[in-house]
Predict the 3D structure of the following.
Amino acid sequence: MDPTKIRSDFPLYESENSDVIYLDNACQTLRPKQVIDSMNEYYYKFPACGGRSIHRLATQVTIKIDEAREKIASFMGCEPSNLIFTKNCTESLNIVAKGYPFRKGSSVLTTDMEHNSNHVPWITSKINHKYVKTPESGIFDFDEYLKNLNKDVSIVSMVHTNNVTGTTIPAKEIIEAAHDNGSLVMLDGAQSTPHRKIDLKKLDVDMFAFSLHKMLGPSGVGVLYAKDEILEKMNPLTGGGGSVGTTDYNSVTLLPPPEKFESGLLNYSGIIGSGAAIDYLSRIGMDEIEDHEKNLNNIITSRLKDNDSIQILNPVESSLRSGIFSFNISGIDSHDIAMICDEISSIAIRSGMHCAHPFFTSRGINGCARASLYVYNTKEECIKFADTIEYIIKTFSA
Ligand SMILES: Cc1ncc(COP(=O)(O)O)c(C=O)c1O
């Protein structure tokens, strides 16, 4: 793949901010013209609601929403009726934590390095919460997982690719062991879906959550996948128009999934734009994207890993961290690193605790800086990033 050619599709690079080196992709990616155009088409040509009115504009919206759902389903290897549109990955995870009828007194088993989106919903849920401890190496400890996987675990809910370390858990093996134990599995796919091929049927995962704004799609669109029997049993987080067949003064008949979970008017332009994002990623190819990010991460890591003033969050081996490079510099706060990168080189990175407070506080680390890569990033940008970090170390490090 050729990132230079890809960049011509991204309006940022023709704007007054064209010099920005955008390395905050794990938060949100940029959007190509194709996505923006498809959203604008909705507002210009058929700005109506879907699934309710029968006039021609509404019919066009319904068709476009169905098409987007079909595109995402085919991209993820599942049926469209198993996909619920939400506003983000966080909402998707909450629907399960709050809406599934878990056995009283049972537990959820997560890792000890979850994003708050797969941590807070469980802290505030009705079931107990257990963690699999991650060793110093940063690599998932399968034996520790098996030790924790006993009969009281009704669900294993884990981050597929970690937003701080970039490591990916062995999902297939985790799912097989959980199913043998009679436990369900949900994966937080916020950082895996944008970066590698996911096949939900092959994985045999029970529930899977992700956000489209981390994969070239519009802000505020998420997806929850769940198997049929789970969608049947699970209660929606919200109720109202669009999710019901009939109601009387005392009762309600819910529509079958996915409508049961999609009450109120949806983010139509966002969902249509999400379909365009899926088209765009499919044209590039997910294997190409994965290779591209690993190559770029290797450029950054090789340049910086032997510098005594830099601490890369484990694992140091770049091929285990996909497109994520998280680090600290001795004597400099991570927010200062991010601010200096922005000031002197127009490099946009993320700093702080990355919504993973327990990970940092349990290890006594006061946050970190994080560069995260995507399809439009180039080798030259990675070299400039490494140059900038070396300059910061030389100039400001203790
Ligand atoms: C691993 C992980 N899970 C969940 C989320 C939450 O995603 P959203 O804010 O789109 O709901 C993020 C966001 O960065 C993430 O990195």
Summary: Residues 26-27, 88-90, 115, 117, 159, 163, 188, 190-191, 211, 222 surround pyridoxal-5'-phosphate (CB under 6 Å). The two ends are 40 Å apart (CA to CA). The first helix runs from residue 3 to 7.
